[in-house]
Design a protein that fits this description.
Length: 239
């Protein structure tokens, strides 16, 4: 599903270049749930921006489902992103004056009139994320956990090939965070959704098939759920 080859990313700060990603190679399979961890400044968020087509690498190749994202111009990336990438952010980025249903349906308006089929899709997602009873409420009347559920449903409304989540539980307490992680796991297991989640929380990372550790712009370590030391690794960091 995702292929990264020798990815470099530099930013110009004044007269100096800062290298954020340094030769990153990565393969992510269709239907895989991957957590990306590492200290601040290690390149996690930059990686997510490149995968989402919000930026382009200085060097290297990025292919998503066979499409060369690194070769696309900005307008092409925008169209590709709208059809193939779903985003979930830490601060939700919802429209507060719209209802739950209106927020979830919002991305569909970019493709014209809301058909009956699209309306059914909206209702299915509202039910899937457990928000049927508040579907006509405005976003500013919801709890943080409910708002993140709306954000997840909105990100999935276009049936994206890839779901990118940037600290999706960062603003939530442990109970609400568990609910969101369980929801993501459900979509991953039931719909074979490919998910890449950036997180600082090892508890959240424990829901993933693999944990990719970044350090100084490079992949330092990859730990798989299939590894014998996976449980011990999680226990060490959660202690």
């Amino acid at each position: 599903m995702i292929h990264l080859e020798k990815i470099e990313k530099e930013f110009l700060q004044g007269q100096e270049k800062t290298s954020v990603l340094k030769g990153v190679d990565l393969e992510i399979k269709k239907g895989e749930f991957v957590a990306v961890m590492g200290p601040s400044g290690s390149g996690k968020s930059t990686l997510l921006q490149l995968l989402g087509g919000l930026d382009v690498p200085t060097e290297g190749k990025i292919e998503i489902d066979g499409s060369p994202l690194h070769q696309m111009k900005e307008k092409e990336r925008t169209v590709f992103r709208r059809k193939n990438i779903g985003f979930v952010f830490q601060n939700y980025q919802l429209l507060p004056t719209l209802t739950v249903e209106e927020n979830i349906a919002f991305p569909l308006h970019a493709e014209g009139k809301i058909t009956s089929e699209k309306s059914r899709r909206v209702q299915e997602l509202i039910n899937s994320v457990g928000l049927k009873d508040v579907s006509n409420k405005r976003i500013n009347l919801l709890s943080g956990g409910q708002q993140q559920r709306v954000a997840i449903a909105r990100a999935l409304i276009q049936n994206p090939a890839v779901l990118l989540a940037d600290e999706p539980t960062g603003n939530l307490d442990r109970e609400k965070a568990e609910e969101i992680l369980a929801l993501l796991s459900t979509f991953h297991a039931k719909h074979k959704q490919t998910i890449i989640m950036v997180t600082h929380d090892i508890f959240a990372a424990g829901f993933a098939d693999r944990i990719i550790l970044f350090k100084n712009g490079r992949i330092d370590q990859i730990i798989s759920r299939k590894d014998d030391n996976y449980a011990q690794y999680l226990a060490h960091f959660m202690a």
